[in-house]
Design goal:
mainly alpha, 6 helices, elongated
């Protein structure tokens, strides 16, 4: 099962790189916008774009392959069991976090915490 997941991951990475390359190579729709207004061929700007060429079809195939691999990886990772016995990401974070962590301002890095008042001062303040 691990071999299959690695194979799907490799196919996903290759399809992502193919999408990036194909999109960068393609000619944009608005690239001739300035020329179309000046040359009288503005019908191509707002009209039909014409049939899809090889690059756009290849991009669509690579995108379909990428999304299929993404769904496949999500399906394969759903069956994995966690090692700590936690059910969710938040449960795993609670297991990793120390139980004796400081609370309040002491938990902020670099914060200056005022020393606690002596018990006699706190008691006299509460009596007033």
């Amino acid at each position: 099962m691990q071999f299959f997941a690695n194979l799907v991951l490799i196919v996903q990475l290759l399809s992502a790189l193919a999408i990036i390359g194909l999109v960068l190579v393609q000619h944009g729709k608005g690239a001739d916008m300035g020329a179309s207004f000046g040359s009288g061929a503005s019908g191509s700007l707002f009209g039909a774009t014409g049939s899809a060429n090889f690059l756009s079809r290849s991009t669509a195939v690579a995108a379909t392959l990428f999304f299929g691999c993404t769904l496949g990886l999500a399906f394969l990772s759903n069956g994995r069991t966690s090692t700590s016995g936690a059910d969710s990401v938040l449960d795993r974070a609670a297991v990793v976090a120390p139980a004796s962590a400081a609370s309040g301002a002491a938990a902020i890095p670099g914060a200056v915490v005022a020393p606690a008042a002596p018990a006699s001062v706190a008691a006299s303040g509460a009596a007033n």
